[in-house]
Batch of 3 targets.
Target 1
Amino acid sequence: MKFQWMAVLAIVLLLGGCGGKGGDSDPDTTPPDAPTGFTASVEGETVELEWVLPGDADLHGVLVLRQAQEGPDGVPEDGVEYVPEDAIGPSTVIFRGPNTANAHIDTPPEPGRFCYRVFAFDTAFNYSGGPPRCVNTDGEDNEPPSFEGIETATGISNAQIQLTWTAATDNVTSSDDIVYEVYQGASEETVDFSTPVYTTEAGMTSFTVFGLNPGDTYWFGVRARDLAGNRDTNTVTRSASTLEDPDTTPPLFDGLEEATAMSSSQVHLSWSAASDDTTAANEIVYDVFQADISGGQTYGSPSHTTSAGATEFLVTGLSAETTYYFVVRARDLAGNSDSNDEELSATTTEADLTLPYIVSDNFLSGGILANGTTGFTASVTFSEPVTGVNGSHVTVDNGAVLSGFSTSDNITWSFNVTSLADGVRYTVDFTDGIQDLGGNNLSPTHRELYVANSVLYVRPGGSGSMTGASPADALPLVSQAIT
């Protein structure tokens, strides 16, 4: 009996000591690296997804999520195994593949805007994903901007590097509406084009990176993004080093000179340009400090910061019939700010509750489409200055194209309507994304176009027969002359 108990004890001890990563080891909670180089492109009714797999030894597979509109917002929970059609928040799993899968073709359930995200996972189902990629499958803009990438990177202080590039172009978005994403790394190899470090304001062709270390070298890349969310894929990089010796002299600046209420929610500020011993006037930025009482500004945290070289700024989002107090200070590229206390105040006007509307347009006047052409230049005049007249808020269906939005006074806008075809009805929609300076939105309206035997017929809206090639089929439309 004693021998039997000793044998049992020996077996128990032997089993308890076996297993390597057994009961005494910690569970695996470290995910593999995320897939990189993720792209999504529309091909007819399908979306082609491609990515580069990470090199982790324990990579077990990949998971692809899809979500309508923006996203995907769903993130897989570590330790949980998912299969296609599982819901993760507002996202849906559309593909689970092995550790060799680097592509997938998706057929969305209906036309529209969809966003995708790919995750890598290990045998313990720890997940790691990169940024999403979004596409439109309903015939909207899916073409990225044309952009050559960053051109120069220059160290301008012991903590700042300035980047420059030539403006991108796009088939729909104007250059003034294109934004740029800046990517940064400590070496050329570490510039990660899947995750931007900064995003510029629209239309900028330069950007100053702040908060760097003196005498260090940094690498940068820049990509362009249009209003539809399409990005170019250039991989151009440039490097620069910050300066060793710090600039500690602030700009010379006399401060704010004018503060004028422009509406119930806006105040216009203006000043004369500052000067500096090392920073050019067109590179000096201005910090706007705003307060509800005189002397109430918090100088450690500006309320607004202008673009470089600005000598005016429009403060928006204010309350009606309210007095605001402003101080403006100049800041050079080294981060030195002047210390003026020149304060001016302005009182916003009574609230503007009047909605903007279209006063007139050339949709109801004109003649025949010029021989050999398939479009015309539209002109629309609003009741007051408006913003948001662009390809996102003025749209057309059935394959026609709107482009070249322009204005000189924000009241009368023009744009091109092209790719019109005989026997086709088109609707040009003006949406509530168009708004006046008081933030009041346009009530959505539209114009209908119909081309019959190369004659364009239009009207504000309504119903009626719009088939066939005869102008009579388009009645009660009014014939328009196109010049």
Note: The first helix runs from residue 2 to 17.
Target 2
Amino acid sequence: MQISFNHDEVEEGRDLILIVKRIGEDKNDLEIPMTGGRDDDQQFTVIGMDPGQSEAHLRYSLPDDEYTGPDVGYSFTLEPENLEFWTPTGDTTVTAKIVDNDPYMVSVRVFSVSVDEGQQIYYRISHDGYTDEPLQVQVTHSEIGNAVGDGILGVQTHTIKAGESGITRAYPSQASDGSDGDATFTVDLVASDDYEINPDRATASVIVVDKEPLPVLRFQNFLVEVREDAGTAEHTVELVSNLPVLRDVTVEYQVQEQFISDGADVTESSGTLTIPAGETTGVIEVPVIQDDIAEDDETIFIYFATRSTPHWNSGRAPSAAGAPSRTTNPP
């Protein structure tokens, strides 16, 4: 009597077959006792053979569980104390390895979707299975605004230790001494042949909240008086802050003429003023229309409309104000 497996090593999702072969011309009924099965679930079983039957098969259909797990073993051992009518030939124990063929499914998540500037940013890389050897996972760190230090940006490699499901990383967010607005730190998983990326958790982001007071916009002079033939009326806008403003500040404005008499001295319009990072003033230029109509002095008002800079803290806007220009007719 001889026992063997159809394969010494087989991937999950295929069949593993134990083959029991009769050696010789014995025509008797046979009952072959053995202990076997999965290594962590060994059970006693008896395989029967009819007269004249030369082989008997015990089939195991191995499910493909789509779960990354350790390889497992199967083994069978003939029970010699129960050998009555036959003698084993060859090994009395046979083994086979079931190879897991599922790739690691890797995910990334953050512990908190927002932190105050200067606090730690925590995120975790994990996989939904088991690893019996270290798994290296690459990520890319990027930012919008001033979220973290330059040394943290770019591609990073993290190693998940054998037997562990993931790794947690922590990085300090940038502590600012100026008003630079909210920023965003993002972690993106990098594709690899060693794992697959969970499409629902391929990226994770944290908002780093700027806690510095917002700067205030105001007009430097309440009233600017120009002649109708001056060409433009210039209004200087000041950016007032106790700390350096480390970002561009952008505001939309509207130009309206009030108390229009016989002829308009400006065209009502709107525009956008941007004060670059580090600067404290900007100028709004309003074209003035010269006409030949004798009329009273006219007043132009400029209003801050809506904020458009992307880094104003949510719910807080620059102060709204209006400033007039008065046009006078030349003599």
Note: The two ends are 126 Å apart (CA to CA).
Target 3
Amino acid sequence: MQANDVRVVERNKFLSEKLDGARGHQRNDKCGMMNDELKERSNAFHSSFIIPHPSFPLYFPCAHWKSVLYFVAMKMRIKRLDHVQLCIPFGEEEKAREFYTQVLGLEEIEKPEALKPSGGLWFKIADIQLHIGVEEGQTKSKRHPAFEVEGLEQIREHLRENRVKIKEEIPVPGLRRLSFFDPFENRIELLEKSNGEPKPASVST
């Protein structure tokens, strides 16, 4: 490399460093203003909004403010659980109705007219509702509702007499538990509170 070429490279490097420094000062000034503005917004919303997790920052470092979204979560005042839903294949409403009313003894309630075209059934269960919806491509899953009951042993015998598939759950202190499956392989857990250690139930075959 010639001497003139070396001087040109050094000069370009010097000018580049100066330009980057100037841009850095400008970014810092802007980010300082942005951080101050976000702090003010955070204080203003503090009375009606919460941050999802204690470790979640109220404002972001200026280097990342464009690449990170600012999230806040609104406080919800949940009053009660209204319903749970299980799904069955299309066209199987009568089979579901027979199982849930005749085997489980649930009371069917009428769906609103606007929702009837979508198919399915609704039942009253304790002080909430059980909705049976219809959908394609069902797969077996661990997801399930759980209901507290009285007389779990009698329920177990009733399910066995009606040849309902039962899964004995692992006992936990203070609870007796079992799960059963409807004709569509939906799992439903039943539990009963007990005093002391639960007794292991005999496994059904």
Note: The chain has three helices and ten strands.
